Amino acid sequence: xxxxxxxxxxIIMPVYWLDExxxxxxxxxxxxxxxxxxxxxxxxxxxxxxxxxxxxxxYNEPGDIVWxxxxxxCVLFMExxxxxxxxxxxxxxxxxxxxxxxxxxxxxxxxxxxxxxxNTWISDNIIMAYTDLHQRxxxxxVEVWLDNELVGGLYGVCMGRMFFGESMFASVPNSSKAGxxxxxxxxKAMGWKLIDCQVHNDHLESLGATTIPRKNFxxxxxxxxxxxxxxxxxxDIEAFKDHA
Length: 244
Prior knowledge:
By secondary structure, the chain is an alpha+beta fold. The protein is built from 7 helices and 11 strands. The protein has helices at 44-52, 85-93, 104-114, 124-135, 175-189, 202-205, 214-224; strands spanning 16-18, 35-39, 56-57, 66-68, 72-77, 97-100, 139-146, 149-159, 162-170, 194-198, 210-213. The strands form 2 sheets. The protein has a 7-stranded mixed β-sheet with strand order 6-7-8-9-10-5-11, with helices on both faces. A 4-stranded mixed β-sheet has the order 1-2-4-3, covered by helices on one side. Strand 7 (139-146) and strand 8 form a beta hairpin. The two termini are 24 Å apart. Residues 1-13 have low confidence and may be disordered.
């Protein structure tokens, strides 16, 4: 499933059509609706500009790339992280082990396979683009292991002190929720304020996520992006040392 599970947005025309040679996006004052631009490419430079503006790509191939900045943004404020009694039991049981940036390809492929029942938005081009960001130290994965087998995880992009969640998967019950909780707890301990979950779904709401107006989200981003980006492999950060 998608962190961030897809729902049907209406694309209100006209929208900005991006030139492949120009990586700029429209200013927030020009946003009208959830879709802010169409076209362009998935180059690292464009993706960096997009995330720094709170914009993310989300589309099905074949077709033009569609760029989103929803009017209602789903976020998890760290202080609102909700751990149900059943999930607390799962976490306390200790059956799962967790790592960061140990198997990015395995996680993104797991997310793609998890959406195979529908038309997945995680195309070969998406995988190549985010793998490139991962190699540049900007995209990161959280892995959930059971008996040394990858059974869940999530991935996203980091800018400043913002983590933009992209997708998550679970091949055994509760593994994605456990990974998300484990990750959020560690970001909170590092002083991070929130995780961007992009669009609402019941799965995220059960973990404490809520929606806020786009303007509020962009105001928060302006503050959090002033912090240095933790670029590189996150296994080197003390909070994320391997537990597998």
